Amino acid sequence: MHSSEDHIKRRRGANTTPHVAREYLGNVALMILLVEATACGSLVGVESSPSRVDATAVETPANAALLVSGAAANFTCAFADYITGAGLVSGELQWASTSPWGREYDQRVFNPASGFYATQTCDTGLGIYKPLSTARWQADHTLELLKGWTDQQVQNRQALIATAAAYSGYAHVLLGEGMCSAAFDLGPELKPDAIFVRAEDRFTQALTAAQAASLPNMTNLALVGRARARLDLGKKAEAAADAQLVTDGFVFNATYSAARFRTNNFIFANVNRDEGVVVGASFRAMAYSGTSDPRVGVRNVGRLAADHVTPLWVQTKYASLDAAVPIATYREALLISAEAQLGQPAVDAINKLHARAGLAPFSSTDNAQIMQQIIYERRAEFFLESQALGDIRRLSLPLTPAAGVPYPSGGTYGSQSCFPLPDNERLNNPNIS
Amino acid sequence: MPFETYVRLLVICTVTGSTALGAQAEQHRTLTGDVTDERGTPVAGAQVTIAGTLLGTQTDVIGRFRITGVADSTVTVRAMRIGFRPTSVTAERGVASVTIKLQSVPLNLDQVVVTGTAGGTQRRAVGNAIASIEASKVVETGVVSDVAQLLNGRAPGVVVHSGSGAAGSGSSIKIRGRGSIALSSDPIVYVDGIRIESTVGVGTSNDANRGARGDIVGRMSDINPDDIENVEVIKGPAAATLYGTEASNGVILITTKRGRSGATALDVTTRQGVAWERDIENRWPTSYAKDPKTGLIVTQNLAQTEAARGTPLFNTGRVQGYALGLSGASGAAYRYYLSADHDRDEGAKVGNFANRNSARASLTLTPQPSLQITGNVLLSNGGTVAPGGNELPAYPTSRPLEQDSIGRGTRERIPPEITRATWDAYTDYDRYTGGLTLNHSPTDWFTQRITMGRDVTHDNSENIFYRLAPDLARFYSATAAGGSKFVRARDVTFNTFDYGATFKHGLRDGLASETSVGGQFYSKQYVIATRYGQTFPVPSVTAIDATTNQSTTDDVIENRTAGAYVQEQLGLRDRAFLTAAVRMDKNSAFGRSFHAVVYPKFSATWVISEEPFWHLGAVNALKLRAAWGASGRQPDAYAALRAYSPILSPNGTPAVTPQFIGNQNLKPERGEEMELGFDASMLANRMNFEFTYYDKRTRDALIQRDVAPSSGYSSGSGILGGLQWVNGGSLQNRGIEAMVNGKLIERPGLEWNSTFSMSTNSNKVISLPPGVDFIAVDYLQNRFQPGYPAAAYFRKHIVSAQLDPNGRAINVMCDDGKGGSVTCDKASPVFRGRADPNVEGAFTNSVRVFGRLSLQAVVDFKQGNRLWNVNRWARCVFDLACEENVSPQKFDPRLIAEYQLGGGVDYIWNTIEDASYVKLREVSATYTLPDRFARRLGAHGAQISIAGRNLHTWTKYTGLDPEGAVLSHHNLQEEDNTVPPLTQLITTFKLTF
């Protein structure tokens, strides 16, 4: 309880208030203003941290090479994920871990809501749609930025345009070959043919820039890429025309390193290091005319894989976590050309590859037989090089093991040969209902 | 930079203040005295002040005080103590000693409480329910060892989710229900006006998704309860408006002990006790298996079989604590409090312990009667050690058929001593909290205050699996036996600058005004680095550098808030008060297009019992109160920013990757709350009531939405990776808080006080953004779905099934959500229950005999929440080691069907169990020894207490403990391999010299 004395004191205080109070109030107001004024600047400014950099500060001409490097790094990571994931679908690989995550690929039963193909990133492994979409977006976005900048602002701008466009092209190609459908920049859902048209466009841009800058390597990359996209589109003659311009011996690799999880060669990591994935049964004994095909490097280690059930068949094509993986090769150009032309040119192309591999020559005049041989050649040449799933879809090849065959850990093999559009795209893209 | 801002503001404030420091040189005297209750018993810890000055002190254990520097003129001496009516006496010129007699009043409307303004506010003017806990009294009994235990059951509406029984485990706290969707609902914490780090779920786990059982530590536990004088809880937006944009889930205000004038006093306290898992051999589940050779059912209770062979799963841990507190004053008007403390608490797991060393210094200077400067410094370090990790010594499933094997029937085929020998989990921390408060009160009508300070925490968590020699390696896979190490280091810095000023002036007869203004700046920064490595080259090496497979992360999360407020409080004849305030905040996490947020508040109180017309004699005091206010919660740092993050390209060139899509329109979620209530005292202050109804709405709730991968930003790493923060949806929390306290017996030599408090919480999601039916969170995909409680369990529900002759479930049908049934593969999940209690409370009885012996017992309860019993689920679904698995015909076919459908987490209806409980939480006896005993020891006071904690549990929950949830999940409550809370028996002996 306050006494009446307190009230008297308060009133007395009040009588002396005005001028001093004004002085204090003034000072306080000044201080609040100071807080507010500083607040507009650095006090509560949004600042970047070592692991996150304001996009507007990054997207400047000075950082053009950095952005292209990012697109390349993201594609490289997505590429190895894709080879492993799509390899499980195509039968090049087989899941052999007690952990259930890879079964959906192996069994070909995909869950668009929670499947790893839909939800995982490069940093977590086995993702398909997210890593490829990220690489594709960064390549495309950087390409648009580069086109808006000038040669004065950006050194080697044409080379960077060629590189960004080529990586965008390859991300498109893999999305088209692997996904049942995909979306771009929150746009509508596109079927593979529409995706390959976009890929073709990117490779054309890459080619134009590479030729303008006289860059033979990038020119070859763009040609092989466009030939692949055109083959996917059924434009065989144009595909062959591109392929025939590719220099003999050309190879463009995705490079890997043991430094970080995301830079690892995932194929080696999953198969040889972790022993949770093995080479698929139909690739363990590939032979031509009784000679074991050296292009399909496999080895039976003689013990069981991580699931303690499956024999540990490892691949020997990639020998370490930092083994490079070819993205585009003269070999591919040869086989694209062969597939487009058939006949003796195809037989010649096949024999060129056989000679390199030390296999007996092939001969035939029957185009159907030649096509069957091209299919074999592609399986062997491109073992774990990202082509097998695309081939199954493009050429309507049978799935192995066939749909309906009992799956070792329950259920049966499914019939899905492409990855359905994930729910995270369907539910969060305003242009897809 | 913040520090420069401090300096600039400090200069201004000092200049501001200096104009009023013109105290005249005058004669001073020393005033001494005694403070007693109405029966003459000394009152320790009473605040004694000289009115109109900042001179003051606290009484010592025998109620004495001494204040120097008092003007040698007639002064008013005022004494205050929680539970007593503040009383003033006049000391005439030349008088050197006074006695102040306080009258006890449990409902004390003149108690000054902290509300954010300079100088605090009298309780009679505060329109909100206030929970004020007199920590020093509770701690004396030795019954609590951290702040969460101090709050548990002592503040209606404050729900403490106890951590695990691993030594050093923290607890999480929710006030008035779950108010956020994507953000945690934890309150913020201040110590002496300084914001501090209080993260829950820090620890050794490197599994971000689930199984984070190593993340047991709560940083609030670093505060030694011995150092706390008082804790106030500001419960919701209606009261927390002045605390701004992070305060909508409540504010915990901790005030530490201050020095006392008078003779130097030294308190020496020692705490000795034991901790164990009560009756664990009967709580531990029995596992079943059918012997394929004989067809007989074999059982094993691992806790019993291990105890029988002389290697019990748990042992009895020793609990010890030593504290020194030195308090005194010297010269004219400065006083100090110094303390040092060492605690070492062993858990019930072999080798598990936590230690805490802390030292504190508090210095209060009163260079002039109008100016008081208080500086506080707290240094603390400690950590936890857990051989074999912070999980149970063995998973609560065993393999009965293998009980004679090398694994002794343990689920992992690894006996506990092998786990302990091969795996160590450590956490350690170093902490500094320092603050300076200047109180300046040059006149009766003006008070200003500056508080500035910093809280710096470094903590480090390590999980080491050693590379094993062959004799141990045989228990593990080749990869595990190669060893691995995970280290997480965090450097956390909080800065606080707070200025407030209050002007009081009378407007006309009976009408008084208090105007408060203030500005605050807070910053917090988390620097977090992790390192991981796998496969050491040789057994003795544990350096990550030596491993073959390494990974690292580093991140900085920084957030800054600047805000200012103005509050006007009008008081009519000191009986009715109207308060209106507005606060504006800017925060670095807001989007660029969102400028600032404004939070208003209004409150009214009416002490109707002091009106002349009040003639209800039985009701001594009745205060009616109403309040409405808003507060907020900002998104995580950088949530608004579109950003790239650096990555390493495979050929070693620098590269960046799109990380966060950002959201330039992002704003804080907004909590708005209305509360109504009354405080009453009846029957000559023998009965007291508090009642509050609250209705809290969270609007613009922050949610995290998946980013469509085609946008390019779906692959970002870290906590925001692939997600976008957006505002959308609203939540409601409603409930009542009630407390009744009665002096059942009050006569010479015997007092019996009884308090029953409870609160309810009805919580539901009101809306979500258009087109979103529900938001699923955490591993179990608990749902925020309109019309249902927040983070509710939703599962498929089997409603009918039969068993075939082989015990296989057939004809299994599930709830279709519309009152019918459907085959389970087509069924959708239906509501299973709340994650949070809807009723909680406590019943406390204390008896005081002959003024020297105090007995106290606390029973507390929580009702209405469910806890996923993962231990049971794993045992019955994965390990097939339940009786239901071996004798299905004995059980409900629906339960058997659930276990047999198993596999994923769709069918876990029955293992999401009712976790309601009643616990005998605390029992204590405290005896103040006769003075002659104390004098024999050279002391002038001695006290001994015996306290027990977690002594009994009444519950239907079938797991080890209904409180044994994993701490680090915001939205999922699960008991998964967690050590149940310990039972403790502790003796505390305190001597005052």
Verbal overview:
The complex is a heterodimer of chains A (433) and B (993). With 433 residues, chain A is mainly alpha-helical. Helix content of chain A is 54%, strand content 8%. Chain A has a two-stranded antiparallel ribbon. The N terminus of chain A is likely disordered. Chain B has a 22-stranded antiparallel β-barrel. In chain B, strands 11-18-19-14-15 form a five-stranded mixed β-sheet. In chain B, strand 2 and strand 3 form a beta hairpin. The N terminus of chain B is likely disordered. The chains are: A mainly alpha (433), B mainly beta (993). The interface between A and B is large, with 89 and 88 residues. Strand 1 of chain A pairs antiparallel with strand 35 of chain B, so a sheet runs across the interface.
Summary?
Chain A is mainly alpha-helical. Chain A is built from 16 helices and 9 strands.
| Strand order of the biggest β-sheet of chain A | 2-4
Oligomer: heterodimer
- How many strand elements of chain B? 58
CA radius of gyration of chain A is: 29 Å
Give the termini distance of chain A in whole angstroms. Answer: 68 Å
Question: What average pLDDT do the residues of chain B reach?
Answer: 86
| Helix percentage of chain A | 40-55%
Radius of gyration of chain B: 30 Å
Number-wise, the strands of chain A total: 9
Profile the largest sheet of chain A: 2 strands, antiparallel
Distance between the termini of chain B: 46 Å
Unreliable runs of chain A: 1-18, 37-41
* Helix-strand category of chain A: mainly alpha
Unreliable residue runs of chain B: 1-25
User: Which range does the strand content of chain B fall in?
Assistant: over 45%
Average the pLDDT over all residues of chain A and give the rounded result: 88
How do the SSEs of chain A run, as a string of H and E? Answer: HEHHEHHHHHHHEHEEEEEEHHHHH
Portion of residues within helices of chain B: under 10%
Note the overall shape of chain B.
globular
* Tally of individual helices of chain A: 16
